[in-house]
Amino acid sequence: MITLKKVIDKINIQCDVIPMGEDLTVLLYGGDLPHIGSTVLSIPRASLTGEGLSTTSSVLNCPGHKDEVLARIFAEKIAVRSNHTTVCICGIHVDGLSGEGIKAIYDGSLLLLDEVLAVIGNENLLLSSQK
User: Is 0.90 surpassed by the pTM of this model?
Assistant: First the structure.
């Protein structure tokens, strides 16, 4: 398992990547009340363009939650990088967050994703989970 954290405008965001057999589970959460807001399952497949990999994704949202945007990005990019089925469960809640605050969390979370992708690119998480 890897855990990476980022503080964005004094808001703690955490990402855990947990190998589960041949698959990966990603937990992305933080703020005032971490929760399950959206779950995205991404399965890597050959791109329809014929070049590289893409994904087929399925989404489960809790009513009224907007966490799908980040959950989808994390699940799809991690599935393509690892070439393994990936599920991302995302729940970030901050009371009274402004539009600028939402953008800051989005942008900061993408920076956190870059860190996650770098780690996945540098180690075989599935093999290291078998030790």
Answer: yes
